[in-house]
Design a protein that fits this description.
mainly alpha; elongated; 9 helices; about 190 residues; single chain
């Protein structure tokens, strides 16, 4: 019984604190070869995250409130955004630079990454109606920040559930074997 409890404790320690295993040179080389064989010739392009888009939105909002046009604010945001967000803005601005209307450029940005949709819609509405945009961008910023906070909260909750797994699989059976079983055995022996 003590051996079984020790095995459970070792398993729990293994799951809780994973050991870094050294792989042989051949295993590393095989893994690299497999990756090269399965990779496509074009590297996968990562879409901008919500926080990257939020940062770009704040730069756009600052530019528009400083008196820039929407096109100038987008160019300013492209220069100051992270690589993924700057690439998405640049693809949209390329449409504008070759002569298409700015609304088409904004639609292109939203097509590339759907997280830009609310920003794009707000900017297109402002372009079409000529209305001031600062308040609408502030509302979009609030909504985007709320969605980012909700995503973070979901990830935090999932980590809390996953961290209980070693406890349920290893520590509790070891506790039952070391504490509960001897007490129950002593009680049964006392009744007989």
């Amino acid at each position: 019984m003590l051996i079984l409890a020790t095995v459970f404790m070792c398993l729990a320690a293994y799951l809780w604190f994973p050991l870094h295993r050294r792989r042989s040179i051949e295993q590393v080389a095989d893994a690299k070869r497999e990756n090269l064989e399965t990779e496509s010739p074009e590297p996968e392009v990562k879409a901008a995250s919500g926080s990257e888009i939020l940062h770009a939105l704040q730069v756009i909002q600052l530019g528009v409130s400083a008196g820039m046009t929407i096109g100038q604010a987008l160019e300013c945001a492209q220069k100051r955004a992270t690589a993924a967000a700057a690439r998405e803005i640049e693809r949209g601005l390329n449409q504008y630079r070759i002569g298409h209307p700015l609304t088409r450029a904004l639609e292109e940005i939203a097509t590339i990454n759907p997280r830009w949709q609310s920003i794009s819609d707000t900017l297109i509405t402002s372009l079409n109606s000529g209305s001031p945009i600062s308040d609408q961008l502030a509302d979009v910023e609030f909504i985007l920040q709320s969605s980012i906070d909700t995503e973070k909260l979901k990830r935090i909750k999932s980590v809390a559930v996953k961290s209980v797994l070693p406890l349920g699989l290893c520590f509790l059976p070891a506790f039952v074997l070391l504490a509960v079983v001897p007490i129950v055995a002593g009680l049964i022996r006392g009744f007989t």
